[in-house]
UniProtKB/TrEMBL annotation:
Residues annotated as domain Phosphatidic acid phosphatase type 2/haloperoxidase: 190-329
SUPFAM superfamilies per the UniProt record, alphabetical: Acid phosphatase/Vanadium-dependent haloperoxidase, Pectin lyase-like
Keyword Signal part of the UniProt annotation: yes
The entry's keywords: Signal
InterPro entries: Autotrns_rpt, PAP2/HPO, PAP2/HPO_sf, Pectin_lyase_fold/virulence, TAT_signal
Domain of life of the native organism: Bacteria
Organism in which the protein naturally occurs: Streptomyces phaeofaciens
Pfam families: PAP2, PATR
Protein's name according to its UniProt entry: Phosphoesterase
Length: 638
C-alpha cells in the first residue's frame, strides 16, 4: 500500500527521539503541521454536527483522515486524549504517557512469558483468514458449517523456523471443488451466510484509514525503557534492533511490514476483522452468540501475544468493529441478505442435527469438549480484555446507546423491541471513564457478551412477551445478569423466561402468561410478586421480599425435597385466590418419603387456599396443611 502524502522513511535519529519521548523521557517533540493535526486539540466530539456513525460509515476511506471526514476516525477519537499524532510515524507525542508506558510493559510481559505453543497459535491466527478462524466459535456446529459453506484454509500449523517469505492463506490443492477460504463459497449451501460475513467486512470496514490518521507504532518498534535508544544494529531481516522486551513470534518475523509509515499499530486490523466476522456469524447463528464474541476477544488477544500489536491497538480494533458491524447490519441495503442468511443457517443446522428451532440451542452447547463450554470461564476471560491497561477515571456518566447498535442483538433477543434491546445494551455497558472507550458515541462501552444475558437493570417497568409459536428464543430464553433498578417485570406470552441472577430490582414481578422460572433464590427481586396467569417454576428455594398474590388459573410449580426448609419464603403476606394451583415435583436426589411433612410456603401471613395441590409422583400424594403463616404438605402413599 502506498504511503500517504507527506510521509517519509524515518531516520535513526527520529526513531531515537520517538522512543525517548513517547515512553516518558524528558525530551520534547514539536509536531510538524500534519493532515491530522486535529488530534492534538480535542477528541472527535469537536467535529461540527457529526452524523450518527451508522449513517456515515461509508466515509471510512483512505482519502478521509480526519474526524470531520471519516466516521471511524471520529469514533476512535478517545485515542486522541492519549496520543497526539505527529507529521510522521515517529514524531507523535504522548498525552497520557502513563497509559502508553503501561501499554508497552503489558506487551513486553506477555511476549516474554509466551510459551512455544502460544507462539505457534499466534502465527496461525496471524496468517489464517480471520473469517475462517472465527468458525471455531461455532463449537459443535463448526464442522457442519465448514462442510456446508465449503470453507477451507491452508494455514493449520506454524513452521518450526522463520518462513523464507510471506505466508498467505489459500485453497489447498486437495480441497473439494468449489471450496473457498474465509467464510466460504457463495455458491455453497451456506453461501448467504458467507456473503453476509463478507458484506459486514466490506469496502468501508478497513482499519487502514485509522492507521494512517493516528500513526501510532506497533509495539515491536517501541521500548518500555525511555533511556534505551536504537542500538544502531539491524537483525538478519534488516530491522533496527532495540534493547526491547517485546518479542515477536519467530515465525512472524518475515510477516511484518517493512514500511513504518504504512504499518501503524492503532487500530489493529486483525482485531477489527475478527470482531466483524464474529458479529456477522452471531447474527446468522445467534445460538452461539456469546461463544463467538468470546472467540473474537480471544483471537484478538493473540495479536498481543504475537508481539504484533499492543493493547490499545486491540481495543481500537474492537471499538471500530462493533460500530462497523452495527452499521452494515442496520443498513437497509443489507436487510434482505441478513434475514436470508439467518434463515439459511437455521434451516441447515436443524436439518443436519435433527433439531428444531427450539432445540438447536441445546445441541449447540452439547459438546463437553467445546473450548467455550464454560460460560462463567468465558466471562472471566472476557472482562479484562474489554479494558486491558486502561484505568477508570472521572465521574460516572450515563450512556446514550449509539443509533443502530440494537441491531447487534436483533436475532439473539428477537422477542424484544428495538427500544428494549437498546436498553439492554445501556444497562449492561461498561462504566464511563476508560479514556480510549469514551470517544464519539462511546461504542467501546458496549459489552455484547453481557448484553446477550439480558437486562442489567430495570430503570423503568419492563414488559416482555415471548410467544412459543415463533420458535427459537421466542420459545425460551434466560436472563443471567444480576438485575437492579426501580422498575419491575411483567412477563407475557406463551414462552418461557428464566431469571438466574441475584436480582435487586424493586418494582415487583407480574406473571400474566407462559412460564417464568426462578433460577436463583433472589431471582424475583425485592418487590411484590403477582401471578394472574401462567406458571411460576422454581427448582430451588426462592425468597420474595414483598407480598405474594396468586389468582385463579395461575400455577406455582415447586420442587420439594426431604430435610429442607420452605421452598418459598415470603417476607410479606400471601394471598391465594380461588382457582390457584400448586404443583409439586419431588427432588430426584432427595425426594420426600411417605409419612413426612414437608414445608412449602413460609410467610408473615397466609390467606386463602389452593384449588388443587398436585404431586408429580406415581406412588405418593400430598395433602396440604395450612396455618396462619404458611403451608406444608403431608406426604402419603397413594
Amino acid at each position: 500500500m502506498p504511503s500517504p502524502a507527506g510521509t517519509d522513511t524515518p531516520s535513526a535519529v527520529n526513531r531515537r527521539r520517538f522512543l525517548k519521548t513517547s515512553l516518558g523521557g524528558s525530551a520534547a517533540l514539536v509536531a510538524a503541521p500534519t493532515l491530522v493535526s486535529w488530534l492534538g486539540a480535542a477528541d472527535a466530539k469537536a467535529a461540527t454536527n457529526p452524523l450518527p456513525f451508522v449513517d456515515d460509515y461509508r466515509t471510512n476511506l483512505t482519502t478521509n483522515l480526519t474526524p470531520e471526514t471519516n466516521a471511524v476516525v471520529r469514533i476512535l477519537g478517545g485515542f486522541a486524549r492519549i496520543w497526539k499524532t505527529g507529521g510522521a510515524w515517529n514524531t507523535g507525542t504522548p498525552l497520557r504517557p502513563e497509559i502508553l508506558r503501561a501499554n508497552v510493559r503489558y506487551c513486553a510481559a506477555v511476549t516474554t512469558a509466551r510459551t512455544e505453543a502460544q507462539g505457534r497459535e499466534a502465527f496461525v491466527y496471524d496468517r489464517q483468514h480471520q473469517s475462517y478462524a472465527m468458525i471455531g466459535g461455532l463449537g459443535p456446529l463448526a464442522g457442519l458449517y465448514r462442510q456446508g459453506a465449503k470453507a477451507v484454509t491452508s494455514i493449520t500449523a506454524a513452521p518450526d523456523t522463520t518462513p523464507a517469505t510471506t505466508v498467505s492463506d489459500a485453497v489447498p490443492a486437495d480441497a473439494p471443488a468449489g471450496s473457498a477460504i474465509g467464510a466460504g463459497s457463495y455458491t455453497s449451501d451456506l453461501g448467504l451466510v458467507a456473503k453476509l460475513v463478507d458484506t459486514v467486512r466490506g469496502p468501508f470496514a478497513s482499519g487502514n484509514p485509522g492507521k494512517y490518521a493516528f500513526q501510532y507504532p506497533r509495539p515491536w518498534r517501541m521500548n518500555e525503557n525511555s533511556e534505551v535508544v536504537d542500538t544502531g544494529r539491524t537483525d538478519a531481516l534488516g530491522y533496527p534492533v532495540y534493547d526491547s522486551k517485546v518479542v515477536v513470534v519467530p515465525q512472524l518475523l518475515r510477516q511484518r511490514g517493512t514500511s513504518p509509515a504504512d504499518d501503524g499499530g492503532f487500530p489493529s486490523g486483525h482485531t477489527n476483522a475478527f470482531h466483524l466476522a464474529s458479529l456477522a456469524f452471531a447474527y446468522a447463528v445467534p445460538e452461539r452468540f456469546q461463544e463467538l464474541v468470546t472467540r473474537a476477544l480471544e483471537l484478538s488477544h493473540t495479536r498481543i501475544v504475537s508481539g504484533m500489536h499492543s493493547t490499545v491497538d486491540v481495543l481500537g480494533g474492537r471499538v471500530m468493529a462493533t460500530a462497523l458491524a452495527a452499521a452494515a447490519l442496520a443498513d437497509p441495503a443489507n436487510a434482505e441478505l441478513k434475514a436470508a442468511a439467518r434463515a439459511q443457517a437455521l434451516a441447515w443446522f436443524t436439518e443436519r442435527t435433527g433439531t428444531t428451532a427450539d432445540t438447536l440451542f441445546a445441541h449447540a452447547h452439547s459438546d463437553a469438549n467445546d473450548a467455550y463450554a464454560d460460560r462463567k470461564a468465558n466471562a472471566r476471560a472476557n472482562r479484562p480484555r474489554l479494558t486491558y491497561v486502561l484505568e477508570r477515571q472521572g465521574r460516572k456518566e450515563p450512556l446514550t446507546v449509539p443509533k443502530g447498535a440494537e441491531v447487534l442483538l436483533e436475532t439473539r433477543q428477537p422477542y424484544l423491541t428495538a427500544a428494549q434491546r437498546r436498553e439492554v445494551l445501556r444497562s449492561t455497558a461498561l462504566p464511563s471513564g476508560y479514556v480510549l472507550l469514551d470517544g464519539f458515541e462511546q461504542w467501546g462501552r458496549l459489552d455484547l457478551f453481557t448484553a446477550a444475558d439480558g437486562y442489567g437493570s430495570f430503570d423503568s417497568d419492563v414488559t416482555v412477551t415471548l410467544e412459543a409459536s415463533k420458535g427459537g428464543f421466542h420459545t425460551a430464553d434466560a436472563w443471567r445478569n444480576d438485575i437492579e433498578g426501580d422498575g419491575g417485570l411483567t412477563k407475557r406470552g406463551s414462552g418461557t423466561l428464566t431469571l438466574t441472577g441475584h436480582n435487586r430490582y424493586h418494582g415487583g414481578t407480574l406473571l400474566e402468561a407462559g412460564t417464568l422460572v426462578a433460577g436463583h433464590a433472589d431471582a424475583l427481586g425485592q418487590g411484590d410478586v403477582r401471578l394472574t396467569g401462567g406458571t411460576l417454576r422454581a427448582g430451588l428455594p426462592v425468597r420474595v421480599r414483598g407480598t405474594w398474590v396468586q389468582e385463579s388459573g395461575a400455577v406455582l410449580d415447586l420442587t420439594v425435597r426431604r430435610g429442607h426448609g420452605a421452598v418459598l419464603t415470603v417476607s410479606g403476606r400471601v394471598r391465594l385466590e380461588r382457582g390457584a394451583v400448586l404443583s409439586l415435583r419431588p427432588d430426584p436426589e432427595r425426594p420426600p418419603v411417605a409419612g413426612t411433612v414437608v414445608p412449602v410456603i413460609e410467610a408473615s401471613a397466609l390467606r386463602g387456599q389452593f384449588d388443587r395441590v398436585e404431586l408429580d409422583s406415581d406412588t405418593l400424594r400430598a395433602v396440604p396443611v395450612y396455618t396462619a403463616d404458611g403451608l406444608s404438605v403431608r406426604i402419603l402413599k397413594r
